[in-house]
Structure formats: C-alpha cells, structure tokens
Design goal:
This protein has about 140 residues and is of the alpha+beta class. The protein has a 5-stranded antiparallel beta sheet. The protein has a 3-stranded antiparallel beta sheet with strand order 6-7-8, with no helix packed on it. β3 and β4 form a beta hairpin. α1 runs antiparallel to α4. The longest helix is centred in the N-terminal third of the chain and has 13 residues. The radius of gyration is 18 Å and the shape is elongated.
C-alpha cells in the first residue's frame, strides 16, 4: 500500500480514497528550518521572516491531497479545493512535475496533488475503472 493512502473511515464499503503527501515530508521542512536558522544571526532584520517558509511548507504537506470516489474527484490545494465529476475529465497526464494533471473536457487542466504514477491503481479502484490501471 503506497504511503499517503488513507481509506475513508466512514464506511467499510466505500470506494473513496484519499491520496496525500507522506507525513515524513515534515522532516524535510525541519531541515529547511534549521538551514534558515543559520541565516538569522547573520541577517537579523529579515532572517526571522524567512522562518515563515518552513511553516508554509508544513501547512502544504497537511493540506494538499486528492480525494476520489466513484462519482467525483476533489483536488485540495493550499487555499481551496475543486470537485469535479469523472465525466468532466478526458484523461490524466504527467508533465515534468511528479503529480498528475487531469485534462478536462473544456480543455483546461487541474493539478491532482500527490497523485503519482504509483498511485494510479488507487484512482482506478476509486473511479470504478474510469482511470485505466497502467500496471494491468
């Protein structure tokens, strides 16, 4: 089971999946904070303001996720979320970033946070087969 996968606890029969960033990523934000702390004595005027960066990174780790079930997919970003029906999605693609982008029927794209090629089987199961499983 990929890290970051959280089954929906509300129903044992629910096909809902939540794909999120691994909580282990908080260790990386800790190292960023330590590195930035070295700048505080050298630049006291703006060095403390730099410590906002690891805090924002930690909030992003907690917030960013993709939730999917048989009918809808929800992409939750740092400042909001967007829910779409699977019928509004033409397909998925992977650009230079590691996360998938949903190509919508209107021609636009929606970033699916934390969805990687390795988690596509989870979306296949949640979508009822609307997303093809590349491993089959």
């Amino acid at each position: 089971m990929p890290s970051g996968f959280v089954p929906d606890p509300s129903s044992a029969t629910s096909a809902r999946v939540v794909i999120r960033i691994s909580p282990m990523a908080h260790f990386a934000t800790g190292f960023v904070a330590l590195g930035l702390l070295a700048l505080v004595p050298a630049f006291p005027a703006w060095g403390m303001a730099l410590l906002v960066i690891p805090a924002v990174l930690s909030v992003a780790i907690v917030r960013l996720r993709t939730m999917a079930d048989r009918e809808t997919v929800t992409a939750r970003t740092l400042l909001g979320s967007r829910t779409l029906r699977w019928d509004d999605i033409d397909g998925l693609r992977f650009a230079k970033s590691a996360w998938a982008r949903a190509r919508l029927t209107d021609g636009s794209e929606l970033l699916l946070p934390a969805v990687t090629f390795a988690t596509l089987p989870l979306l296949t199961a949640a979508s009822g087969g609307r997303v093809p499983n590349p491993y089959e």
